[in-house]
Design a protein that fits this description.
Blueprint: H1 2-14, H2 19-34, H3 40-48, H4 56-69, H5 72-84, H6 90-106, H7 109-126, H8 131-141, H9 152-161, H10 165-171, H11 173-194, H12 204-230, H13 235-253, H14 258-291, H15 294-305, H16 309-324, H17 329-346, H18 351-364, H19 373-382, H20 386-408, H21 411-414, H22 416-422
Helix pairs in contact: 1-2, 2-14, 3-14, 4-7, 4-13, 4-14, 5-6, 5-12, 6-7, 6-8, 6-11, 7-8, 7-19, 8-19, 8-20, 9-17, 9-18, 10-22, 11-20, 12-13, 14-17, 15-17, 16-18, 17-18, 18-20
Length: about 425
């Protein structure tokens, strides 16, 4: 029976039926087929949303959009330019460094791709860089946003897996820097091969001026993460603090446009409405999987092949990478994680280590066709064909995959900060 439900779900998704409808219809078919009381469906749907941590999602998303609105992204870009802009291919390094800094404020790959991309692609074009390279490095670096805290996708995983969001946030710091380093190595190789220009000479005067200009936006992650880990406020309250801080900066810099702010709130509300619909209905699907003991079947199949934790992780990551090309990261996590948790527990994989790497893997799908949101966003900003942008992104795609594979075999590296803070 469960395999028919899965086939119905996969078939509807393949036909481009909205994810929420595909999940809802397959769940409803199961309830009707098994003669389960129909009131179970709304109970499971509503209970999934009964989590205060989900309130952080719209606030972090709005905070990332406000950074672009008030001009904070440009200030961060100028700082990164002052730090690494003097190296050959310096603007490529600047893009990665800007994304690292921006990621610690937005938590959204889509916001990073469009927000940072609107600044970096134009700057690289004006300085003689290949437009395809400009779009590719921006697209590759946008994947850092869901890794470095605060991260929207890690909040979704935390709710789904009942894992500590504080530990997940801390676990994302070192891998985020590691992956950023892998992207910078790729930039360096391509820049030297293609003889990209050398930027302005390094100047402490320009560095201090850029640091002064960007100091207040740079305090955003300090306030957010410092407040969370010191116990001053919860992740949900931290998201609200971040939005209010962005509004204060907008008033201080006199760059806030209240009409544009209203439209940003509407856009975020529309996006979150669709996201919450998917999250709520996934509760019914998760209940169906649990009732039919799908996690136990899956555990039995995989453990019959191997019980090595690293190999199991690689198998799961491969599946997540393929699914990420056809589905958004959130529904992948909502559908698969409840089924995968017993498996990772059976083979001794830490749920924080697994959650971080699986979230990163699904996010890579955002830069790949046919449904990559970030790919479409950067292509629109760069005014280039989607196929052309993706071909140029392949070296960065390879660097991301190799970095994730390396992190599979480095659990102590991923878990160092969570263990240090939480024991």
């Amino acid at each position: 029976m469960i395999w028919w439900i899965i086939l119905i779900m996969i078939g509807m998704i393949a036909l481009r039926v909205p994810i929420a409808v595909a999940l809802g219809v397959s769940g409803a078919v199961y309830v009707a087929w098994k003669g389960v009381p129909m009131q179970v469906a709304p109970q499971r749907i509503m209970s999934t949303l009964d989590n205060a941590l989900l309130l952080a999602l719209p606030m972090f998303m709005l905070g990332g959009r406000l950074m672009n609105l008030i001009g904070a992204t440009q200030r961060v870009f100028n700082l990164a330019l002052a730090i690494v802009g003097h190296i050959r291919g310096g603007l490529g390094y600047v893009v990665v460094l800007t994304s690292i800094i921006f990621s610690a404020m937005s938590g959204s790959a889509a916001a990073d791709a469009v927000g940072v991309g609107s600044v970096t692609v134009k700057a690289m074009r004006e300085n003689g860089y290949d437009p395809n390279f400009a779009a590719a490095v921006t697209l590759g670096a946008s994947t850092l946003a869901p890794i470095i805290p605060p991260s929207i996708i890690l909040i979704v995983y935390s709710v789904t897996a009942n894992a500590s969001v504080g530990q997940l946030f801390l676990a994302g710091v070192l891998p985020g820097l590691f992956i950023g380093g892998a992207l910078m190595v790729t930039v360096g190789i391509l820049s030297h091969r293609r003889k990209y220009p050398v930027g302005q000479y390094f100047s402490f005067k320009r560095l201090f001026a850029a640091l002064k200009q960007s100091f207040l936006p740079l305090m955003t992650p300090v306030i957010i993460l410092g407040g969370i880990f010191s116990g001053v406020f919860t992740p949900t309250e931290a998201a609200v603090v971040a939005v209010n801080y962005m509004l204060i900066l907008g008033v201080f810099y006199r760059t806030i446009n209240w009409k544009d702010f209203y439209y940003e709130v509407v856009r975020v509300g529309t996006t979150i409405g669709a996201l919450m619909l998917i999250i709520s209905i996934s509760g019914l699907t998760g209940w169906v999987f649990a009732r039919e003991q799908l996690p136990l079947h899956l555990t039995g199949v995989v453990t019959s092949l191997t019980t090595d934790p690293s190999l199991v992780m690689l198998i799961i990551i491969f599946i997540g990478l393929i699914l990420g090309m056809f589905m958004d990261a959130v529904p992948i996590i909502l559908i698969l994680v409840p089924a995968l948790l017993p498996l990772i527990s059976a083979v001794g994989i830490d749920p924080v280590h697994f959650g971080l790497l699986f979230a990163i893997t699904t996010v890579i799908g955002l830069i790949t066709p046919p449904v990559g949101i970030c790919l479409y966003g950067v292509a629109a900003v760069a005014k280039l064909p989607i196929e052309q942008v993706f071909r140029a992104t392949l070296p960065f795609f390879l660097a991301l995959v190799l970095a994730i594979v390396a992190l599979v075999f480095m659990p102590d590296f991923v878990l160092f900060l969570p263990r240090l803070m939480f024991g």
